[in-house]
Design a protein that fits this description.
The protein is α+β, with helices and mostly antiparallel strands. The chain is 43% helix and 24% strand. The chain is built from 14 helices and 20 strands. Strands 5, 6, 7, 8, 9, 10, 11, 12, 13, 14, 15, 16, 17 and 18 form a 14-stranded antiparallel beta sheet that branches. Strands 1-2-3-4 form a 4-stranded antiparallel beta sheet, with no helix packed on it. A two-stranded antiparallel sheet has the order 19-20.
Length: 621
Amino acid sequence: MDKNTWIGFLLIAAIIVGFTMLNRPSKEELAERKRVQDSIAFAQTALIEAQRLADSVSMASGEAVPAEQQPVVEETRPAEQWVQLENEHLRLTLSSYGGAIQRAELLDYHASGDSINPLCLFRANESAFGFTLITINNRILQTSKLIFTPVESDAPNKAIMRWQGASEDAWLDFVYELSEDYMVHLALVPHNMQSELAQNINSLELQWRQLIPQQEQGRKFEERYAQLQYMLVGGEMEKLSESKDDSEKESARVKWIGYKDQFFSTVLIADDAFSSSEFHSTLQGKHSGYVKEYNTHTSVPFDLTGKTQTGFRLYMGPNHYHTLKAYDDGVAKEDRLYLNKLVPLGWKIVSWINTALVIPMFDLFTGWGLHIGIVILLMTIVIKLIILPFVFVSYKSSAKMRVLRPQIEEINAKFPAEKMQERQQATMQLYQQAGVSPMSGCLPMLFQFPVLMAMFWFLPTAIELRGKSLWWADDLSTYDAILHWNFNIPLLGDHLSLFCLLMTICNFGYTYITMQSQATDPNMKFMKYMMYAMPLMFLFIFNDYAAGLSYYYLLSLFITILQTMIFRWSIDDQKLLKEMEENKKKKAGKPKSGFMERLEKMQREQQRLAREQAKAANKRR
């Protein structure tokens, strides 16, 4: 080697030695590193000792110790901190453990039997909400197990829960903003998290679990309406079973997920959409204090740089039709939430009657400040007046059939059972000449039935009835038991509801009056007994239903009895018979109606086919 080469080596060695001396840690840094290493060694030793102890217990018992029962070494955690957001309707408590809402209270409502404390939708041990994070070194973190720090905010009803990364300049914020009603906004805001989280992250897995506490007196009825529902992007509603454990995997994009009880819901709404979703609904034990447990595993888009915000809205409030529908006011059709579908209003035509007639009428009468009992009475009267013409037509048709009964019996005697077609033809001819349509007695029922079903769906789900009393009933939204017993009677249950009992008695009275005013065939005694059995069946069906519904049916039946008595007083059978006889004379020379001609032609064709079949049978013999 020449002199220049040796000089180069010496210069390189000097640079390395100098760089090493300059970057050597100080005494304080060396002490801190030793403390960290000692802590890690202590934790590892403790974990090994705990595992050894668990293994020895398992070997001694001959059984494997479940993971949740194995001893663990608890790390030192900072004290839990809480942040509270509150408006006049809703109070939320956020926890630094997981950064999520730990408690949600509705200040305008109370649980059944508790007139002091606000109704609590869920508490800390009843709800879990969090996301899965993957760090840059492929560690998996659950935000529900991370420690967040509350950050002061100068905006009212706004809270920031911050998870600090390893770097001082990297964090993830959960930003909550409570509006003036039941809606809270949640935004995930990352800051310099590119150095903390995996670079290929474009979505986050979300886990949401919630137990639904029993809030109402009638558990059986509450279970019927407690349901996990979700809305697909596009407006199509999907539901899990309310009567059994159920699960569903949804590949379509989901707009919102609703954890629904009878009168209250917690709804998670994505600013964008949920994808690859899996839903579970599990029934809870009768004495557990809970109705259902809901679980959701899904994913949401996530921009690691924070340029595109990952946001949600959480609705925590009543299943009140107008409150839920108001969130779509002034919103383009493609962006509407349709949260009002959480309120069950029946099938399509029944739902239309509820939204077009029943709910506006209910709003009108309650807006006058009337007692809820008077409101239901006025609604019953209005509905009865609307369907009164149809009921009158039905009753008059029955009266005509009753007056014509002697002539029908003559036709039956003239044509024996073997000549059934001739008997039917003669009967129809008599009806046509007298101006009687057998269908006129049935068609009015087709108009009444949807209205009756609309009230059947509306009253048990109307939160306005919740907590409202009437006479002996403390709460019209549930049953009004006057008797309890310590055993279960099949179908009836462990109590007897007074409004339901009164409705049944009134129904027996109406059945008796109806049977007395109608002509009945002596050979059809079984049908007569069945008519009296129906009211008894209603006692078993409606015993668990809302007292408000039984009260409505009681009023409806009572008014129907009054109507029937007025109709009977206003219609004279002899006068009616005279009118029909005159009608016969008028139609005697007139051609038959198209309907009767078609009917007679069909009957003649049936007779011809019957004769041909009889001839063919004789030939085979």
